Amino acid sequence: MSRLGAFVHRLGSPRWFFDMTKPWLAGLAIIGIALLIVGTVWGLVFAPEDYQQGNSFRIIYVHVPTAHLAEALYLAMGVAGVVLLVWRMKLADMFIAVTAPVGMAITGVALLTGAIWGKPTWGAWWVWDARTTSVLVLFFLYLGLMVLREAIPGRERAGRAVAVLAIVGTVNVPIIKYSVDWWLTLHQPSSFSLTEQPTMPVEMWLPLLVNVIGFYCSVAAVVLAGLRNEILERESDTVWVRDWLQRAQSGSGS
User: Fold this and answer.
1) How many domains does the chain have?
2) 185 in Cβ contact with 130 (< 8 Å)
3) What would the 3-class secondary structure string for 166-198 be?
4) How far does Cα 47 stand from its chain's mean position?
5) Within a 13 Å sphere around the CA of 212, how many CA atoms are in the beta-carbon half?
C-alpha cells in the first residue's frame, strides 16, 4: 500500500484522526485569528476607497471570503458523501453532520453582507438575481441536510440519506459560480479568483487575500473542533474514549 493509501486508510479511523489533529486545531485557530485581524484592519482602515462605490466596497472583506467558503464547504460535504457511500467511513458522516450548521451560518453571513452591500449599490436590500437566488438555495440546502438528518430514524440510514442530498446539492455550486456569466445579472463578476489576475489594485486585493486565508483557517478550526467533539460523542462507549476522558480529567489528556 502506498503512503497516500495508508494515510487515507488511517484517516478513516476516528481514534487516529482524533489523536493526530490536536496540534492542527491550535495552529489553525492562531493563524486564522491573526490573519483576520491583519486583513480586516488593513482592508477597513488602510485600503483606499473605490472610485465608484466609495467606502461601501469594504464589505467585500467579509462578503467575498464567506461566499467562497459557503461553496467550498458544500463541495467538501459532497466529497464526504461519496466517501461515506462508497467506503462506509463513518468519519465522513461525522464531517457532514458538523459542517452543515457551520456552512449554513457562513452562507447566512454571505447573504447578509451581500444585502448590506446591495442597498447602496443597487438601491435594494434584495433582488431576485441569479447569483443571490442560487446562494439562497445553497442556504436552504444546508438547512435541508440538518432537517433530513433529524427526520430519519437510525443514524446510519440518516447518514446515507444526507450523503445523497449533499452529493446532489453540489450541482448548485457551479450555478452559483457561473451565474454571472450564464445570465444577465446585477451582480458584479467575481472580485477574487485563484486562476485569474485580480481586477483590483494590489493595495485592495492583498488584504482581501489575507482575509480569505484567515477565514478558511478559522472555519477549519471550528469544523475540526466540532469534529473532535462529535468523535468523542459517537465513540463514547469505546475504551479509548473512556481512557482519554480520564486522562483529560486528571490534566494529562492529549
Assistant:
1) 1
2) yes
3) HHHHCCHHHHHHHHHHHCCCCCCCCCCCCCCCC
4) 26
5) 18
Let me know: does 162 contact 149? Beta carbons within 8 Å.
yes
Contact (CB, 8 A) for 11 and 95: no
Q: Does the residue 76 lie in any domain?
A: yes
216/69 Cα distance (integer angstroms): 7
Q: What is the pLDDT of residue 50?
A: 84
pTM: 0.91
Q: Is residue 16 part of a domain?
A: no
User: Is 11 domain-assigned?
Assistant: no
* pLDDT, averaged in runs of 10, over the chain (254 residues): 65 88 94 98 92 85 96 98 94 97 98 91 85 95 98 96 98 89 62 63 93 98 97 94 90 59
